[in-house]
Structures are given as C-alpha cells and as structure tokens.
Give the backbone structure.
Amino acid sequence: MRAMSVLVDRKPYNKISVRDLIQEADVARSSFYAHFRDKDDLLLHGFRDIGINSAEDIFREGGSEGYPDFAIVLFRGAEKWKSMSRACLNLDSATVASHHMRNMLIIQTRDWLKNNKQFSPADIDATVHYIASALLGLLTWWVVNDFPYPAEAMSDKFNKLAIQGLQGYEND
C-alpha cells in the first residue's frame, strides 16, 4: 500500500500500472501477483488499513437515538489516508474501490434496516440506496474539496441528516 500511496500523489490512479507499483515497492512481479490479482485488488486490500475488513465494520453502534454511527469509520479513514481517498473517490473516473465501498454501505444499511426498523421490502431498497448514495456523495464532496472540516464534524453532519430523513419517513 505504501507504493500505491506514493504513486497516487504523483499521478492519477487510472494511469498507475502494476509495473509502476512493483518498481516503486522494489518487489518482483511474481511477488506482487502472489498476493494480488491486479492494482484494484491491492487498492481493495487498503480498506483493511482503515479498519474495514467487511461490511460489518462500516457502522459503529452507539449513534444517537438508537441509530448507528453511519459514517465515522469512512470519514476517519479518508482523513487518515488522504492520498488514497483522493484516488478512490476521483470524480473523473469511478474506481473499483468506490464501487466496493458503495456495495459495503448497501449491505450494511440493508441489514441494519431489516433488523432494527419496520420498513416494507420495497421501502428498504429505496432507503438503502438513498443512505448509501448520500454518504458516498458527501464523502466524495469532502475529499474533492480537500477535507475542509474534521472527520468527526462531517460524520456528525451526515448522521444528523440521515437520522432526520429516517425519522421523517417513519412518521409518514
């Protein structure tokens, strides 16, 4: 991951090759392929560095009013790994990492809604995609605008908006 982090500071993710990675890391091509399928696989392994091994690691219990903290893990990870965040959330070309992140958000949100709130199956799908898209959109805005607020402030803002939206929907 160090080599990827160095390289994304120099050029866009889509311009980085496996050859660039192995030269920067000073490893043999066979060593790289013994651990990763391609550069996207290496990037996905980077999620472990910010504490995300599976969808279950995205939300943290202990949010307000019985809701989980939807966003803190992603905002803290993005703040810690700014260069990698810029590479993953590049508006010019969606990466496999942003798709992976969205899928994990969808899985986790769907599971949480099924287990904790009373939504019809049709309502769950719409709500899941709303929350995942809103979180990924706000995270992308924050990264593209060079992290103008601390991670905790962004997470709090997202959680307030998401909870207000869910509570408003529940009251309909």
Remarks:
- The two ends are 47 Å apart (CA to CA).
